[in-house]
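Let's see one such:

===
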Amino acid sequence: MMLQIIDLAFILEKLILIVVVISASLVIAMYTTFAERKVAAILQDRRGPNRAGPFGMLQPLADGLKLFFKEEIIPDFSSKFLFILGPALAMMTAMMTSAVIPWGDVIEIAGRKVSLQIADIDVGILYVFGVVSLGVYGIMIGSWASNNKFSLLGGLRAASQIISYELAMGISMISLLLITGNLSLKQMVLQQQHGFYNVVYQPLGFLIFLICAFAECNRTPFDLPEAENELIGGYHTEYSSMKLGFFLFSEYINMFVSSVIMSTLFFGGYDIPFINEAAMFSTNVLAIVGVVALMIKVAIFIFIFMWVRWTIPRFRYDQLMHLGWRILIPLALFNMLATGALSLWMK
């Protein structure tokens, strides 16, 4: 009986954490659109959205309501089931990635220690890569089901781009794994608490990972799958209402989750230097401060995503492929071999 009560409490904790993470991801993605418009306005010396609510803070809600109340259009010659499945799959895979991210340390509630991580699995990095690689299927299915040549071209671009840059990203992760010795995101954070952050040991690996994250999220200068001057809008040309909203939201959720993963892998995640060693806070306060620290690191990465978008022009497609296959992959291989040689020499 006691075991059943413990199991029920554990399930309830995880369900509450899932609801909180999903809700927070959606709200952050929604207001990231607002932040991006404000950052663009600052860089272009203009005001940005400032009409809906105080300081324009209700603009994301207005945009969301606009998408909700727009007419649902499904092209006559499209594959209707796949047309609906595409954006749903893109949104689902974007949300699933957050399941293995350690958002903070443990907190104590009524004598129970609750981990601020939905699932602490030993192969967390492999799970992330597996789910991220599934994300392209949403784009591919949606673009093919639209029965539109511009959508299909955008889907083909997205598939070849993500396959190309996942190779360099995966090889850069092998270099990191040679140093950490495990695949668990939680263990990587704990290791960085007792030493330097991984970016100190792997600066080239971090740079390769960052560039590949831009490509994986279809962010400028790698937004060829939706280049409006060439493909009218790319893979989501035929979409409207919340189906279009799912595609757009999944991009911002991917950007948020990518920022969290980079903060976790290379910058200690929720760790704050010297705070854990000082032991000046209670367990709950330390966990909350850690979550805030992680969000600050994430905000810096999201700003970099936005800054690059409004600074660097879009690549040509041949330039994009040249960078992926002839520059990043050789660099990642060199970094992996150098890291392996150094690890053997240090032993």
